[in-house]
Amino acid sequence: MAQPTYEWRPPERGWREQDLFDLPEDGNRYEIIEGSLHVTPPAGYGHHELADLIRIALGVTAPTGWRPIREAGLRTPGGNLIPDVTVLKPSAPADGMWADPADVALVVEVESPNSRRHDRFIKPALYAEAGIPHYWRVERGDFGPVVYRYQLVKDVHYDLLGTVGPDDPVPVDEPWPMRLDPGAWPR
Q1: Cα angle, residue 117 at apex, residues 104 and 55 outer, rounded to 5°
Q2: What is the DSSP string of 58-96?
Q3: Does the pTM of the predicted model rise above 0.85?
Q4: CA distances to 18, 26, 114 from 4, in Å
Q5: Where are the domains of the chain?
Q6: Domain spanning 44-184: which CATH class is it, in words?
Q7: For 144-167, what is each residue's pLDDT tens digit?
Q8: How far apart (Å, rounded) are the C-alpha atoms in residues 99 and 173?
């Protein structure tokens, strides 16, 4: 068993954003939720490919100044999260590592076996608390990706706007008017 090449200890208090900079760049996703460190192992190629295609589809339709970003850090009241895709508003700073929720119009999570519980229950509550107006959760179905579209209600929770499957592309208004077509993404 390989030994770490550095000495590492968890903080003697709750985890904070600056602690993330001391962690290894090993492919794991490190997030902080309510002062606790959450580690998710690297996702598979299919997960990354689908997230890239969603980012590209959003980017092709984005109005000037809007930026879909893969794995951008997001500050939330309860910590630091890393959505699979984050859509930054034109008012967002041009460069950075951790986005402010006020600069985010949409977050997208591509569900995988290692992230299912977080993507369905924990992260939506934290995104809602942060005031993110829209949340999409994408599942890989037997016949292609299915997008569950949510909208923030009264800055408290998300209501389901609807689902979009690979055989039913529809026009949507979030984060801007566009045609959402999961059938154009890989199966």
Answers
A1: 35
A2: HHHHPPTT-EEEET-EEEETTEEE--SEEEE-TTS-SS-
A3: yes
A4: 21, 12, 24
A5: 44-184
A6: alpha beta
A7: 999 999 999 988 899 999 999 999
A8: 23
